[in-house]
Amino acid sequence: MIGWIMALRNMLFDSGLITQHKLRDRVVAIGNLSVGGTGKTPHTLFVGTLLSQKATVAVLSRGYGRKSSGFRRVDPMDSAEVVGDEPLMIKRRKPEWTVAVCESRVEGAHKLGALQKPEILLLDDAYQHRQIDRDLNILLTRFDAPFTKDRPMPVGRLREPQEGAKRADICIVTHCTEDCTKEAQSELKKRIAHFTKAPVFFSRMRSNGLQDANGEVKAEGGKALLLAGIAKPASFSAHMKGLYQEIEFEDLFFSDHHRFSKKDIRSIIEAAKRNGSRIITTEKDHARLPRELIEHPSLAICYESIEVELLEGQVLFEKILNDKLRFSQAV
Asked: Which CATH number covers residue 222?
């Protein structure tokens, strides 16, 4: 049913029966066809960092999971409950960027434009939010769960049919592992080509080590609680255990964007005490941990800092950004 509804909606947009709002800014939308777990926030940071070398960048997000409503400009001192964990993570990583949240992308874009008039507006998780016209559509899909093997909800995990990939200007296959050989890349490119003519790139997450509020933390052996509330916590766990083999981890997982209750906080503290009072988590989770944990006097909390990197094709990727966004020189 969802597939049919989205197909009809897309047809109305494609035919012009539903009007798209054209902004004065250059607009880049980053998103996916599936529900969660493709690395939208790290890729928003990756693309935004490249573009910020050419122009002022602002990010607009829905602010999923926040308790507030309406338009709000994100401050690094905000809580995830107020602005959402992903926008807060972006703002703390890039304090010089303007980051805002709003349920209505159109309202948010206009209010953001009145505040700053950014030269480039990044729409985070906005592949299906077609009310705003965009200059560049970046579609993400996971290497271990490509949209080509999925189906629309409720049978599968796609928000819309696979044919929605035709709107992409760039497709990035994310979370590539050692299994992502040249042969595997070639085969996946062939499958993706059935749905879109967009050039396909492959990316992986590079670790920048462990960080806390004061900077880099040295990875020492011993025990640690591995805390994660993301879409694919098992993948994060396998990654961390491979990266830090000297650490004995105990896993504690919650659902994506989980709001920690008082009971959860007690459980986390008890689990941490079993593991030397040390907690290692994701950067996104760290942005939304309750103050009771962050300020707990006996807990040592840090997170893995990650960066996106393309396996190859960086020059071509930047050329496409340049051409689509009408820059006179390569980004």
From this structure: 3.40.50
Q: Is residue 8 part of a domain?
A: no
DSSP state of 165: G
CA dihedral of residues 80, 81, 87, 88 (deg, nearest 10) = -30
Residue range 210-220, pLDDT digits in tens = 999 888 998 88
Residue 267 lies in a domain: yes
Q: Which amino acid, one-letter code, is at 106?
A: V
Q: For the whole model, what pTM was predicted? A: 0.92
The pLDDT assigned to 88 comes to 96
Tell me the torsion sign for CA atoms 322, 323, 326, 330. positive
Specify the DSSP class assigned to residue 99. Answer: E
In a domain, 150, yes or no: no
pLDDT bracket for residue 16 (50, 70, 90): confident
Beta-sheet pairing, 200-212 with 300-310: antiparallel
**Domain span at residue 263?**
208-306
Quote the CA–CA distance of 61 and 99 in Å, as a whole number.
8
Q: Give me the residues paired with residue 111 across strands.
A: none
Q: To which H or E segment does residue 238 belong?
A: helix 233-243
* Domains identified in the chain, total number: 1
